Prior knowledge:
Layout (H helix, E strand, L loop, with lengths): L1 E3 L7 E3 L4 H14 L1 E4 L4 E4 L2 E2 L8 H26 L3 E6 L2 E6 L6 H20 L7 H15 L1 H4 L9 H7 L4 H18 L1
Antiparallel strand pairs: 1-2, 3-4, 4-5, 6-7
Amino acid sequence: HNRIKDGLFNEITFHSGEKKLKKSILISVSILLITANAFALEYYILGINTKLFKDRNWFELAAGAATAIVVHEAAHIAAAELQGHDWHFSMESTGPAVWFENGDNYFLDANAGFFAETIVGTTLNLIPSTRGTDFAKGYNCSTFTRLLSYNLRWDYESGVQGDFKMIDENGGDGEAEHFIYTGIAKLNFAYS
């Protein structure tokens, strides 16, 4: 068991297997519930003022968030296929994941997911007809939130091969790339 003291709760006790998932949920909820104006009690969820909920299309927000995950995983598969690497898809406690099974260098495979995801997010913001749409907000919020919570969802010190650990092990700098992708995602989210 692990105990964590948090401002939202007095004390939380996690079983070791549930720890990462619950921490990720707590941080994601904290990120999404950011007070914009404490005196007016205005809150933003997915970049949307709660007073404007009636004007939002929740289907588009959810579709954008789901599309970001699909783009990420599809990019991993495309990179693996282009290099002749075997792969398989599975659902993990952290979400959907593509695993690579043969080959001597997985640098491109590991990089492809967030690279493609941030390029598509930037493109959504550059096209006038998609900029500011609920789809773009959902897409860019999903990318930003998953990057912010990445280290909580994938334990870098364990034997699990998350994207940034694979980048490190195959000649890149996972921490630097995580920082860069998170910065791009933050800008995309802020301008969507």
